[in-house]
Design goal:
By secondary structure, the protein is of the alpha+beta class. The chain contains 21 helices and twelve strands. The strands form five sheets. It has a four-stranded mixed beta sheet, with no helix packed on it. A two-stranded antiparallel sheet has the order 1-3. A hairpin with a 4-residue loop joins strand 6 and strand 7. Helix 8 (about 210-225) packs antiparallel against helix 9 (about 230-245) and helix 8 runs parallel beside helix 15 (about 445-460).
Length: about 600
């Protein structure tokens, strides 16, 4: 366990849970300073405040790992020279700060959820149905945290009662529990949460179908873990069916709007984190905007121009930074250029591409929406190699300004709010420094449908598999294109749908349960790289390469192509796509390096093996 977690609990987790403030409802705090547990939990408002940190602050230190594990290791995104995961050879050390912070944050989510539920039971005089509603929210967030942990580390200690563990002095001697028992625990917690949660909740908060959607996804993983177990696959389909019949069953019509303010309360968003625009408190902001955005795009600070969308992800969408013989300063003939990232269905064009990544000659109406683009005669952001500078009339001069130096020529669109004016227009508030209210969606209906499709595929039910797949592809505008279902196709389609949503790497984990060699082969075939120009190698930068394209500049940088997948503690452990525990946590609790033990489910009063 993380040292930070247990020291925090020792100082009193109630203060941590209740001391944050913000203009956002999810950051509301009590009206009295330093309330005690006995005095608190007396009203429904206070119960809501007790679980609000589980929608944001508790997850703060997981944000970078969300992208670095979920997308960098999946081959969607490249990062260069810092102490993050090595993009190209899939290796990471146990001293990695992002790994350490991520593990600590996930355990903090569990701790906060447990403490909140313990105190509700002990001190709240409210009706059981009201208390259970907020316990249900805490249980879903705890299950989500454990679902990340079982997919990242495989085995980890299960903690259901932090007060008991601290009281018995077991904080630094917990043993890991088995991967199978983690799946059973997650399923049991979610089933109980579904009993507690209402059919409908306040906008942006969890409801019964949040639990059902996550159950569908967890059952798919557990089924693959158990060799495509037919009963578990049926359970995945059953819970997906419940989501389909609910108000969450219809997908957001315009895909790109999911990743702006509409995503906070869209029926498609089943589990969403909500962030504050200010530093008060600091752990309440979405930092992905800074890590993935471009310094010239906004005034509040960003450094993501040194990272890049991989060639491999561009290939999945059939685009390339140098395709269609585009010449510098002349209109492009690339088939999908000038596309608006707010497009609805357009025949033969996957609308997810422009909402996922920005390429040369893309028009993004929700970035710099107060600035006029001279070349297009309308406001917004127009991508050129040298872009962003405004003339005296506040118009974009497309041939002068800061350079679009992303090493592959492509940048993420998801997670980026744009300029201060964009944030004000989008969220009706001004960001403070690096703050951003951009929501982080941890689970949405389209993901559940892709899981249901795969579950049906494993059962040999191609009619159901295609039904759910077609729902997702129809919204993307490519419903008329033919396809053939296979595991490589599922991974491709999930990357097109879910890139930059912190999830795609775990698809390899699930596939490895079934066929680890096939999963490795897929990765070894990826072009997880940029081009042989710019700061990652070669001469010049992307603007030079675009002005004077040569064979040496526009080819993939073969010097940084992956050649092997290590099977050591610094990489894909045992061929199972696992990451190492942080060395600080192993030093504090050597049992993390030991053998996993079965979990004692007798301490979980509502566990029923027959309901798994």
């Amino acid at each position: 366990m993380s040292n930070k977690i247990f020291s925090t609990l020792g100082l009193g987790c109630l203060g941590l849970l209740l001391s944050f403030s913000s203009c956002e409802d999810f950051l509301d705090r009590p009206t009295e300073d330093n309330p005690t547990a006995v005095d608190f939990y007396q009203s429904e408002t206070e119960l809501k405040q007790a679980v609000n940190p589980l929608y944001c602050i508790a997850w703060f230190d997981f944000q970078r790992m969300w992208i670095d594990a979920g997308d960098v290791l999946a081959g969607n995104y490249g990062k260069g020279s810092t102490n993050i995961y090595t993009t190209l050879n899939m290796s990471t050390g146990s001293t990695n700060d992002i790994l350490t912070n991520g593990y600590g944050a996930l355990n903090a989510v569990v701790s906060m959820a447990n403490i909140a539920m313990t105190n509700m039971d002990a001190y709240s005089p409210l009706e059981e149905s009201i208390v259970n509603k907020y316990k249900g929210e805490a249980m879903v967030m705890k299950a989500m945290a454990y679902f990340y942990m079982v997919r990242i580390w495989g085995e980890t200690p299960i903690i259901d009662d932090n007060v008991k563990i601290i009281g018995e002095g077991l904080s630094y001697s917990l043993t890991k529990n088995t991967e199978e028992d983690l799946y059973k625990y997650i399923i049991t917690v979610l089933q109980k949460a579904a009993e507690y949660l209402p059919e409908e909740n306040d906008p942006g908060r969890l409801d019964k179908y949040s639990a059902y959607g996550l159950l569908s996804k967890v059952y798919l993983y557990y089924a693959c873990f158990k060799g495509k177990d037919s009963h578990l696959l049926d359970q995945s389909l059953y819970y997906a069916g419940l989501v389909e019949k609910s108000t969450h069953g219809t997908l957001e019509p315009i895909y790109g709007k999911l990743f702006r303010h509409e995503g906070e309360t869209s029926p498609e968003s089943l589990i969403t984190l909500h962030w504050s625009p200010t530093y008060d408190p600091y752990p309440s902001i979405n930092i992905n905007h800074c890590d993935m955005g471009c310094s010239g795009l906004n005034e509040t600070g960003a450094w993501g121009q040194w990272n890049y969308v991989t060639i491999d992800l561009m290939n999945l969408f059939g685009v390339n930074s140098f395709d269609a013989n585009v010449k510098y300063g002349e209109p492009t003939t690339r088939p999908d250029s000038y596309k608006d990232a707010e497009l609805t269905v357009a025949a033969g064009y996957d609308v997810r591409r422009a909402a996922t990544m920005a390429l040369y000659h893309d028009y993004i109406p929700f970035w710099q929406r107060d600035k006029e683009v001279s070349a297009l005669g309308k406001k917004g952001f127009y991508v050129t190699w040298n872009c962003g500078k405004k003339d005296s009339e506040n118009k974009t001069d497309v041939d002068n300004g800061w350079e679009w130096v992303f090493p592959s020529g492509a940048a993420p669109v998801k997670q980026i709010h744009g300029s201060i004016a964009d944030h004000i227009d989008e969220y009706n508030c001004t960001p403070d420094g690096q703050g951003s209210c951009t929501p982080m969606i941890l689970l949405r209906t389209a993901d559940v449908y892709l899981c249901a499709s795969e579950a049906a595929f494993h059962k040999g039910d191609m009619t159901t598999a295609k039904k759910y797949m077609d729902i997702v592809r129809n919204r993307a505008g490519i419903g008329d294109e033919e396809y053939s279902l296979s595991m490589p196709f599922y991974l491709d389609e999930r990357r097109r749908e879910l890139a930059f949503e912190g999830d795609n790497y775990y698809d390899f984990r699930r596939w490895a349960y079934i066929d680890v060699d096939a999963a490795k082969t897929y990765i070894l075939g990826q072009e997880r790289n940029s081009y042989a120009c710019g700061w990652l190698g070669g001469e010049g930068d992307m603007m030079d390469a675009f002005k004077k394209p040569t064979a040496d500049l526009v080819k993939p940088n073969t010097d940084i192509l992956p050649t092997v997948i290590p099977s050591s503690t610094s990489g894909v452990i045992g061929g199972a796509f696992l990451l190492p525990f942080p060395d600080k946590d192993v030093a504090a609790n050597p049992n993390l390096a030991g053998e996993a033990q079965p979990y004692d489910f007798s301490q979980l009063g509502y566990y029923d093996e027959t309901k798994i």
